[in-house]
Model the fold of this input.
Amino acid sequence: MRQKRLASLLLALCFMLTFASASAFASAPEDQPFKPVQVFDVKAGKVVLTTPNDKEYQEFANKWISSITGLAPQLTNDDSCNYVYRVPLEKPVTISVNGTKLLADDVFLFYCDGKPPLLLVFDEQRRPYLLLFKEDIKPFIKKIGIPAE
Done:
């Protein structure tokens, strides 16, 4: 069961990497200034919500980035991560962590039961960085509505 769960998480990471680089999301519709925010359900193995991105989502993502405390240890093989949220950024942002600078244009939030949330970003060469941060995600979860309170 644990190996199956780890495989699901790795599949989610691969899916998100593919999604982040998919040409279908190269530009937002003219009436939407940003690419949409998406929710990936790890158990279901699919995107379960796509919603318009707005200034409030941008503020959430920027607060998360501003509160990064360091690199996270590798994902463990437990079954607590249920959702991954993709928040495309208005413009690429430089992130400095542990002496490394990287430029990211999407932020992926991992929501895991009973564990601190994690951020996943990809640098210019599409290398993944899993990051710890300290900003409260409850306002974001309330706005996005998944999981329901």
Q: What stands out?
A: Residues 2-21 form the longest helix (20 residues). Strands lie at 37-41, 46-51, 68-71, 81-97, 100-112, 118-122, 128-133.
